[in-house]
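This section describes the prediction task in plain terms. A model, or a person checking by hand, is given the sequence of a single protein chain and must write out its three-dimensional structure as a string of tokens. No templates, partner chains or ligands are provided. The sample shown here is typical of the held-out split.
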Amino acid sequence: MIDQQIKGLNSDTPTEVITGLIDSIKKPGQRFNTSSLVELLSERHPIYKNRSSIASSHIRGYLIEAFHTIGMPQKGLPYILEELETSFSPYIVAAAAKAVRGIKEPHSGIVAFLNKSIYNIWQADAIVNYSSFLGPYDQTVNTTALKEIFKSLQWLEGKAQYVLPDLYHLETQMAEYFSSENRKLLTECIETIEKADASVDDCCTLPIEVYNQKDNHQSSKSEIALDNIMLQDHEGNLLEWNDYFKGKYTVLSFFYTKCHNPRKCIQTIYNLANIQKKIKASNYSDIQTAAITYDPTYDTSSILKSYGNNRNYHFDESNRMFRVTDGMRSLIENLDIGVNYKGAEVNVHRIEVYIINPEGKIERSFLRFQAEDNLIMDALEELVGNEKLPVSKKTEQKSKKPTITNRLSTIVLPILIAFFPKCPMCWMAYFNLIGISSIVSVSYQPWLVYAFAGLAIFNLVNLYRLSKKRNGLFPFYLALVGMLLLGLNYWLELGSLIMVLGFLLTLTSTLLSSLSFKQYHKISHFINEKWISLKYA
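The expected answer:
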């Protein structure tokens, strides 16, 4: 009975009927096929057609939360992980975090998505309630996205141990932004994870089938009729589908310029730009890229070109952006594109990247998750094989003979990599070291004192402004004290001991600033543990 009701839902079904059905499903003793319920999460499902993006989002959130009660099947996992990775809505994120606890045998790779969601939501968290869709609400079950995330991390126990450095950072550097209840939950979460046995899963990595899972099982080799689809590229040129998509392998992404979610379309185009660079570096001559907009009405050629240029997308004959001028519905149906509309406006869509073969058929699909460059390049390597430009014999001969320089580089290069500044903040930290420590050696060139001090002050300002996004205020305090000691020593001549101390503090702040996020907090946690053990010994 319930299965038939689920299958009967469509664009004309009132919202209260849909949510009423979800409420009935959550009641004990109900029998139904959870797979049919998962199908409601597909962006292509008719229930989202002609509804606003807000209404569609709330229906999806209310449905996702239900899986916490009824259990989350494997087929539904990609949907909730996508929301954890990309959503900034407290209603959606809290629902997805709760649904994690409906999984019978969770994989440790899920933890990485929960961890990402913390940083998506911590500035926009709000109270949500799933006791009813439209009210009245049971206020005793109010919750927040952060609360549900911390509960799920605690529930995962040892599977979450590899994100402990990030949780330590939250506890020591960002706790002031959390409510007292969330701070307590975070502390309990950390304690539970620390005490649990380590997971035997391949941490951080979900099974590849989760990434490639489709909404509908359609063979990538099936015949699809796209001959009648007309395209217009970023320069205004009109062409048929086969004119571009036959004859070469194509990495194809979908997006639209009015999408303001930085985790979806914006990131998709940045990723495609990076893939372009790797294709060029790999000397592939038979691979091209393309990006097609979901919104052909708004995204004109000039808008596409401006959007691509602003995101470092390289345009040429083998790298283009398109809008469909005729046959958009046919394209959506034939490629099973994950998008829906209210009128001509996009109201819900997924992340999707495809590799299309020279016959114009889909070879690989990367759906819902931002596929890393290496994942797509590995797939291209497998498909295309070793069809790269030949390497010259001279180059081969050079590579066979290890020189003295090569031998030295195996020792020196790792050291340089370890200490070379890897970001603007690291460069400023190194300027701090150079600037302040050089004050002691410019007694006869006073103008250099002010130049070096200016660099150090500029660095301090940047360290302070970005402290909550990087390694906290401790490196800033060290740099400040080091700067003051060296400055005072220059003007008051306090002695070599003060100079050495100032120099060491400045050097330490520089090294701490150049550490990665996780490395810094591993060291910080280790020192804290040793201090506590000594204090209470």
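For orientation: The two ends are 66 Å apart (CA to CA).
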